Amino acid sequence: MSLLSRLMNVWRADRVAEELDEELQFHLGERIRRLVEDGMAPDDAAREARRRFGSPLRLREESRDVKLLPWLDSLVRDLSLGLRMARKHAVVTAATVLSVALALGGCLAAFALVDALMLRPLPVRQPEQLVYLTFPTNAPDQSESENVQRPRVPAASDRRTRPGRPVRDEHAGGASGDP
Q1: In degrees, to the nearest 5, what angle opens at C-alpha 129 toward C-alphas 123 and 132?
Q2: What are the tens digits of pLDDT across the range 64-118?
Q3: What is the DSSP string of 38-70?
């Protein structure tokens, strides 16, 4: 059987099943007829023919595998069932589609960020000459980048609220303006 006819049979699987049933009945009937012609009683001939013929289910499945592409037939049936269930449970389907869409959007946004910041070269003329600056720290629980982000001078608003008093610099360890 050609690949094209097996492919077409997937789309008309009910008709193929009917043809297989007719063909199996024909062969079983022919075997019964031959046994009756050889002198057996019709009931005994039918029983003997079914015994020799074997399991009709096994024969039907073997013939079906020859006439169809089993993997494609299974895929079509699974997709059909999935679509029926999606239509039957529309709220669950909508929630699932929305969740998948949000997850894909989040993944795409994360990849776009990583791509822009880490994978592509920086938009400068000579990126190999860029330098990363940090302030060294002696505290083991404080990383260098934390030290860079803290302000080194007191805020101007602190000076305005206490005009006559010296402002204490927390980072320097002493008061600024102490005599």
Answers
A1: 90
A2: 766 667 777 788 889 999 999 999 999 999 999 999 999 999 999 999 999 988 8
A3: TT--HHHHHHHHHHHH--HHHHHHHHHHHHS-H
| pTM recorded for the entire structure | 0.38
Tell me how far apart the alpha carbons of residues 59 and 55 are, in angstroms, rounded to a whole number: 6
68 in Cβ contact with 20 (< 8 Å): no
Q: Where are the beta strands (DSSP E) in the chain?
A: 168-169, 174-175
Cα-Cα-Cα-Cα dihedral of 99, 102, 106, 112, to 10°? 140
Instruction: Read off the DSSP letter of residue 167.
Output: P
Helix and strand element counts for the chain (H, E): 8, 2
- CA dist list (Å): 61 to 53, 65, 68, 72, 159: 14, 6, 10, 15, 90
Ramachandran angles phi, psi of 142, nearest 5°: -120, 125
Whole-number Å distance between alpha carbons of 72 and 74: 5
